[in-house]
Amino acid sequence: MEELQQAVGLETSDPDGALKIYYSITKQTASSEEEEKVIEQALLSMGKLLAQKGRVEELSKLIKSIRPFLGTVSKAKASKIVRELVDTFLDMESSTGVEIPLCLECIDWAKSEKRTFLTQALEGRLILLYHSVGQYSEALTTVNRVLKVLKKMDDKHLLMEIQLSESKVYHTLRNIPKARAALTSARTTANSIYVPPKLQAALDMQSGILHAEEKDFKTAFSYFYEAFEGYDSIESVHALNGLKYMLLCKIMLGAPEEVQSLLTGKMGLKYSGRGIDAMQAIADAGKKRDIAIFNQTISKYEAELQKDGVIESHLKALYDTLLEKNLVRIIEPYSRVQLSHVAETIALPYEVVERKLSQIILDKKFSGILDQRSGVLIVFDASEEDQTYTYALETVSHMGKVVDALFKKAQKLS
After folding, report:
1. What is the pTM of this model?
2. Is 123 exposed, middle or buried, given 0-12, 13-18 or 19+ CB atoms closer than 10 A?
3. Contact at 8 Å (CB) between 331 and 342?
4. % of the chain surpassing 90 pLDDT
């Protein structure tokens, strides 16, 4: 126990020294339950320290080398140690290419040891790995296989994780109905069990993503806020994504001026970086209704915007919205304006501008007509809609209800 405390004290000042002590503890033979606990704690602490220092290979070797010790402890404790170390390894998100082979090797070992619960838990992480590298067919095959086994087992916590993973895979494949059905199943399962903060945040994040897909950005913002708070409470790197998606919702709702107010205080300081800078630049483009700033931002922050699947999926809609606002801003001062002038001002091809203006007119975003022969847009003054016809229809409808009610009363009297 003294060695363990010494190693913990050295983690900050002398990480290598702490690792040596942890390593020596793990090589000891446990003769009592207390010594087992010390070795278990040393293994987990060593795994976390290796992850913090980014030592992928050493952590991978540690996971493989502890199997003799796992044979001396109970199955429940062995499963806990393996799962925590594998989770620590995968949470590094190092993308070295050894994640899937390591996970498959651990699954084979768990099967050989007939540890069913551990096997299903590791296969749950394997689904997410397949999803992250784009092997969607393998991910769905694994989902279907694991769900069949879990229906025979009473492990609702793991069932919820698999259902959430299934929802993520279907969302990436753009099968939104199945993604929503899987998420609904996951939430139903979660209602009957305790859900750890990290998993609850993942549920809220997926709910926000699916609501955003349906253009319900107000509800999506609420879910993203809950996800952000959950991830922030456990110091997870995914908290940054939650904050970015919150900002995205404000931009998509047409309230880019609220982005800055969200970033004031500790929240903005803690998560400041290129990701937040990219969203601020997009918000600035939305506030100024400037498509040029938008395009420059996309080029400057390509990794932060276009490589994020959730943000990238909304970029086209965001581009269309900004293009509309930019065109409206340009034509606002005119009653007649040449399309060539508009195209030159906005720095876009003539055909793109003509097509977009036609769409805006058809959508009744403003009143006007395109004279294609002369290449001129004629803008009409906004006129108030005459409500007489609407009021007349409402009056007739109400009178119809009155007559129906009187007819029913007359039938009763007769």
Report:
1. 0.74
2. buried
3. yes
4. 16
